[in-house]
Amino acid sequence: MPNKNTFRWGMLFLVWLLYFSFGITSVTIAPLAIPIMNDLEISYAQMGFILGAWQLVYIFTAYPLGVFIDKLSLRNSLGIGILLIWFSLIFRGMAVDFFTLLLAVIIFGFGGPIISIGAPKVISVWFKGNERNIAAGIYTTGPSIGAAVALGTAAPIDGLIGSWRGISLVYGVFVFLTIILWWLFSKNHYIDSTREKAVSAFETFKDLLSIRNVRIIMILAIASFFLNHGLNNWLPTLLQEKNISLTRAGFWSAISMLSGVIGLLIIPSIARHGYRIVILAVIFIIASSTTFALIVFTDYPLYFSLIVSSIVRAPMMPILTLMLMETKGVGSVRMGAAGGLFFTAAEIGGFSGPFIIGVIRDRAGTMDLGLIVLGTFVALLILLLPILKEN
Predict the structure, then answer these.
(1) What is residue 216's predicted lDDT score, i.e. its pLDDT?
(2) What CA–CA distance (Å, rounded) separates 198 from 158?
(3) Are 257 and 151 a contacting pair, CB within 8 Å?
(4) Which of 42, 277, 325, 364 is the most exposed place for a label (fewest CB within 10 A)?
(5) What is the rounded CA–CA span in Å between residue 188 and residue 295?
């Protein structure tokens, strides 16, 4: 039986690279939304649908892919996932209209779930105890830093190359190198070979849904992704509508994303068993308040609100997945299927957030009403926390 301590931090680094590639790919469109809309002649509502398309696909692919991860080795399944993400990135730069760009983003909806579901399963099989909290905080900085890099560099790359399509080539080189590193150095863990005997995917589905904590966590996942994806995808555009230039909007969007890394490194590590529900309550209150603040403030008070918002919003997902993997009846063996359910629910919010904000913007002519919807929805989550249990 191999010693799990020999390579767990190496696996954490490789998973971080996968999630960084996930983040940089997922946000390639947002910072250049207006130039892309002008070039491809698409509306705000169509762009909102594109921004949320991969989250919509998640809803249907997450659970089957989670079961797939439980049955296939983590090394092979995550290797397939990162390859699909690379294809999605390259095809975005080849889009000629709404439908071809939409198709490129949809491909991400098949590769992305494998990474986002497989990553917490890697943590669950390679780490134990409070090391899980630390590892969860570290690996979830990957997509935030990746997104920050995309937000901060997309406009300069566009200016240097003279086309928004250049981002696919530049970022594609890095993602391809990540693919090579994963296949060269990643390893399977002996726990990953453990399987539930004679239990179908449907039986597992019923068993997991019968657990109250799983159902509540799924609802919280919907709301947290509704806020995060809705706000993050439209943030550069929101800032531009406050008379901030494209480059400066990208800069502050990147700073906002990087601020989330602070929350990811600190909050999950202190969110130990017995304190997570209280911490979630504080997170929801601050997240709601700072969302409303984006309507009222301008200049540096606006930027301060963005930074605080990102710090508290970023740890929502790792805290919820930690509670999920430690819920009785889930554990490491079923974390793939449970993670699939989690992201199936979460991406209902992940899709509807950007899409609804885009529709509201088309109808109201401003982002303010959409921000009111986001802030109110998150504030209501506090009502669910008293019935959530830490097992």
Answers:
(1) 92
(2) 53
(3) yes
(4) 364
(5) 48
Q: What is the DSSP letter of 274?
A: T
Neighbours of 142 (CB within 10 A): 24
| CA gap 320, 335 in Å, rounded | 13
Burial (Cβ within 10 Å: 0-12, 13-18, ≥19) of residue 391: exposed
Q: Which residues of 340-361 are buried (b: 16+ CB within 10 A; e: fewer)?
A: bbbbbbbbbbbbbbbbbbbbbb
Q: Compute the distance between CA of residue 239 and CA of residue 246 in angstroms, rounded to an integer.
A: 9
Q: Which residue has the tokens 């940089």?
A: 24
Q: What is the pTM (predicted TM-score) of this model?
A: 0.77
Angle 362-366-370 from CA coordinates, rounded to 5°: 85
**Beta-carbon count within 10 A of 166 CB:** 16
Q: What are the residue ranges of helices labelled H in 163-211?
A: 166-185, 201-209
DSSP 327: S
In the prediction, which pLDDT does 16 show?
Answer: 96
Q: Under CATH, domain 4-387 is a member of which superfamily?
A: MFS general substrate transporter like domains (1.20.1250.20)
Q: How far apart are CA 231 and CA 109, in angstroms?
A: 19
Instruction: Pull the structure tokens for residue 35.
Output: 């130039």
What pLDDT, in 10s, does the model give residues 269-305?
888 777 889 999 999 999 999 999 999 888 889 999 9
Cα–Cα distance between 307 and 373 in angstroms, integer? 20
* Inter-residue contact 148 to 306 (CB < 8 Å): no
Q: What number is the average pLDDT over the span 123-143?
A: 86
| Residues 207-260: tens digit of each pLDDT | 888 888 999 999 999 999 999 988 887 888 888 888 888 778 888 888 888 888
Beta-carbon-side half-sphere exposure of residue 20 (alpha carbons within 13 Å): 21
What is the total residue count of the chain?
Answer: 391
Average model confidence (pLDDT) for the chain? 87
pLDDT in tens, 44-55: 888 878 987 887
